[in-house]
Amino acid sequence: MATEVYLVRHGETMFNQLDKVQGWCDSPLTIKGIDDLKSTAQALSQVHFDNMYSSDLKRAIDTVHLMKDANQVSEIGKIKKLPEFREVFFGSFEGDDIATTWEQVSEAAGIGPEDDVTKIINQVGIYEFREATKKADPRHLAENKRELDERMERAVSVLGELTKIEQRVLIVSHGDFIKTLAIKYWNQSDGLHDIVFPNNGSVTRGILHDNGRFEIVDYNVNAEDM
Known about the structure:
Strands 3-2-4-1-5-6 form a six-stranded mixed sheet. It starts with a strand and ends in a 5-residue tail after the last strand. It has seven helices and six strands, in the order βααβαβαααβαββ. The chain is globular, with a radius of gyration of 17 Å. It has helices at residues 14-17, 31-43, 58-70, 98-108, 117-136, 145-162, 175-185; strands at residues 3-9, 51-54, 80-81, 168-173, 203-208, 214-221. Helices cover 40% and strands 15% of the residues. The protein is of the alpha/beta class and 226 residues long. Helix 3 (58-70) links the parallel strand 2 and strand 3.
């Protein structure tokens, strides 16, 4: 049985608002973030879900509870937290200024100072971008493409085991993780170049087939377009 997967990006956080790198580090949802999520929750309030899941980071957990509380047609028990769906890990760059971080990454990629992440990825490709991020990290802790690919594949595998008898589920995850899933599993991506970053509170829909194959079928859909 195939499972329909609604991937929701968490609401805006303080670090989003301050343009700081936010991977495994956490910051609280803003008032705007909560208000925007109410629109997403309302848009999904009549969609039946067999279960809801979340990344184990607090901004995602807070978001999934907003989705759960607003849903009028689902009976969801305790939320299971899945560390496999955490945001990309940026190592020593966590909490740093985003523009400054991308400049350091672009230097490590050999293209000179550039703070536009899309330009960096499109020039060197997603593989070299992830390698350059790890190289630029003074402690070399940031996830590279191999590490992230392995985690995404593990996430799909774990989800497959959890949803064997579930037809539709919701998972709250994170912007760069959802984007990287789409680069890998969406047929409108070439697997190399950048795609638009998903908005806070947006929904990306995937299908997890019973043979374990995962595909993204809708990407970055905002509440008003649902």
